[in-house]
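for ur thesis appendix - Aldo/keto reductase. copy paste whatever u need, i formatted it the way the template wanted (i think)
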Amino acid sequence: MTGAPTRTLADLRISPIGLGGNVFGWTADETTSFQVLDAYLDGGGNLVDTADGYSYWAPGNSGGESETVIGAWLASRPVRERVVLATKVSTKPDRPGLSADNIRRALEESLSRLRTDVIDIYYAHFDDESTPLEETVDAFEEARLAGRIRHVGLSNYTPERIRQWFAIADAHGCARPVVLQPHYNLLHRGDVEGPGARGQVAAELGMGLMPYFALAAGFLTGKYRRDEPISGERAGMVADYQRPECYDVVETVARVAADHGVEPAAVALAWLRDRPGVTAPLASARDLNQLRPITEALTLEISDEETRALTRVSDAARS
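the 3d part is after this line
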């Protein structure tokens, strides 16, 4: 295994780039998923992130497919102790929301699919305002005290609701969440950076950040060109980025990448990896070619001058 740096989150040691599992059982079949997971681990990575809802949106899927693939991989290799395993609850169509009963059922099903006794980070995937937050916080603490999860994470929560969760946890004597998973990348920064934004609240409360959409749904890989029509599965997800200033960002990323002999995605990930408060950006790979820049970004060092250049063009394009 290639040596790679790690970062501390609570009592966990985590690689600086995490592997997103949304593609497993969707655009990556089991065989290819195993190859990607093996190569990521061999390349020095150790954070595998998924959700019980992945990938209910794909024809013929109902959710749980990604966890099932990861569980089969864990069961077939002696690697569980080397992996920081994260999953989430609230979006699986037959396990929606964050009621205590749903969390209990969903967690047992996730553990079964993942073929593990404990989940290292268990996220509330999306806020459920129809359930009293006290009920949700207490249910996560119940799971932690039972040894079914090690740490609590939040994803897609507003600053106000993050603060409310912490206030309830403190009042009830529950463990505080250790990590926030926000949408954050070179083209999407506004609701993470700045006064009162998610990143500031996370820093104030001692949470790490594990950004998703770190590559802007593939836009930051450089595969889309200025003035060329965009098609494919993610065309709608990158529609908002088809602006001249966003292509300026991509072209700057590509120039830095060329200077380092790496792929553009590696530079975009390295920039985000080194933003204040970030523990590990998440990126997914449906094959070994897509994995390469993820493993490159584990150790890629970009200069202060390059970082400033990337930030300048990002400032002009940020949303």
